[in-house]
Amino acid sequence: MSDWKDPDNVPDPQINGESYRNPTEVKMSQIVLPCHANHCGELSVGQLLKWMDSTACLSAERHAGCSCITASVDDIHFEHTIGVGKVVNIIAKVNRAFTSSMEVGILVTCEDLYTDKQWKVCHAFATFVARRTEAGKVQLKQVMPHTQMEQMEYSLAAERRRMRLIHAEIITDLLSKCQEYEDAVPAERTRVESVELVLPPHANHQVSTFGGQIMAWMENVATIAACRLCNAHPTLRTIDMFHFRGPSHIGDRLVLKAIVNNAFKHSMEVGVCAEAYQGGEPLRHINSAFMTFEVLDSDRKPRTLPRIRPEPDGKRRYQEAVARKKIRLDRKYIMSCKQTQVPLSVPWDQSNQMYLSYNNVSALKLMDARNNWVLTSEKNKVRLYTSEENQMLCFKVEMHVSVPAEQTFHLLSDLRRRKEWDQHYEECELINQADEEDTLYRVTTPSASKWGKGMEFILLASRRKPCDARDPYLIALRSVTLPTHPPTEDYTRGEVLCAGFTIWEESSSVTKITYYNQATPGVLPYISTDIAGLSSSFYSAFSACSHFLEANKDKNEKTFSCKLYTTVHRFISDY
Description:
This protein has 575 residues and is α+β, with helices and mostly antiparallel strands. Helix 1 packs antiparallel against helix 3 (211-230). The chain contains nine helices and 27 strands. It folds into three domains: 20-165, Thiol Ester Dehydrase, Chain A (Roll), CATH 3.10.129.10; 175-339, Hotdog Thioesterase (Thiol Ester Dehydrase, Chain A), CATH 3.10.129.10; 341-558, Alpha-D-Glucose-1,6-Bisphosphate, Chain A, domain 4 (2-Layer Sandwich). Helices cover 25% and strands 32% of the residues. Strands 17, 18, 19, 20, 21, 22, 23, 24, 25, 26 and 27 form an eleven-stranded mixed sheet that branches. It is an enzyme of class 3 (hydrolase). Has an acyl-CoA thioesterase activity with a preference for the long chain fatty acyl-CoA thioesters hexadecanoyl-CoA/palmitoyl-CoA and tetradecanoyl-CoA/myristoyl-CoA which are the main substrates in the mitochondrial beta-oxidation pathway.
């Protein structure tokens, strides 16, 4: 809590000598009153979700210039509860706009007016869609990032969007066998069903039910279901990513159903579904969500929970809850940590591939967004820059080549060809091509000294094509561990925390290549003399890279198929 800085107390960035504020930024401040609180005197999460949705919607509409509706919300992890009398501050702004949808970032903080302390409660990302007008589908204007932070969020928004599109696909790979427990509570005992009539106060100016209001009703029935399992008052900790499948309007009867899907040692997952109908029409599925609850003891520590026994028709939900718990742990372990907190090598498997890939690409994008690079030296139009931050040394090498960007991307994507121009690559073995974007390699390098062993790296290479002209091609590299490839006696196992290429198309025939590396003990021996100005081996390597690219630019050697990219981009264009 002490590391967090109040955004309201941070001076606005200066652009051309003038104070700058994001034009899509919307702020909301609310005092928590008893009518907003639950039985514990803490702000109801349902009420907080309504405030967050309203703030984010206003930000989206400010950018779109028309009414917008909530399409989805990413995972939300609530770090702290908020008591009566505290002030809730919410800031929302559009990070990036696509064809007709946009990502809105939401930051929620709590303020104690008596002690002047503030702390972060949660950070969320919501997707909003501009409603069709009489003229047809709305084409959103692009967001123009101005600050380093805006550029970073703009770049990461594309990666988060990619992850949303394939989020549901990994559930089927993680279903585990159903384990029965003695003296378990029947899941049927936790089942809750409630109905709400949508009235004008529940709807926006377009007579559609507020997404936040629906989420609040869902949180209410989910809390009741959780109470029935533990016979105590639970605390909501996380809400998984979810999508609104259709709209609800004034006059709808909203049927809300909840049941505990599974209970673990200190947490339980509650599944909740919202359906709507009017008159005698069939039920329309509006939304489904999964919420994780804990029960805290007098010391605010999680209590041990009773186990659940699924009903015959609930075994799939029971198994899927286990899979989702595995996914949550992967996300928390891999994605939610600060870059300095992530272990160098993380075990790779199919279940966490998506999150490791996200971490790999986002780390490179964060390095690319830095603005504290210092030019160390330049030779033959190859520039070497360094940056030191949080006691970590990073470097980048920049050059231009007369080769089309896409062809440069394909030639540099296959690490097996890197030894053709990089003397530090002795051998490169393709271990596993997980899909069209992620590949695992084993790389060996010669010893950096006359008497030492050579180095061995197990690398995950993640590549991305640009979403639009303001994105580069990306090839991100990081170390992982594989049980099939343990360390060997012949080599010293090295680690790469973050490395890779950004490839920018400056014209149809000129491309800017930037290579990044976050120096680790395994990498430093190879680059220390270059950074100190005592060697020019880096310039020789990247000059050789330039010759390699130009020698192969007329050859149609594309090692990887682009079918997945075509599918994903077609899906994105329709989204």
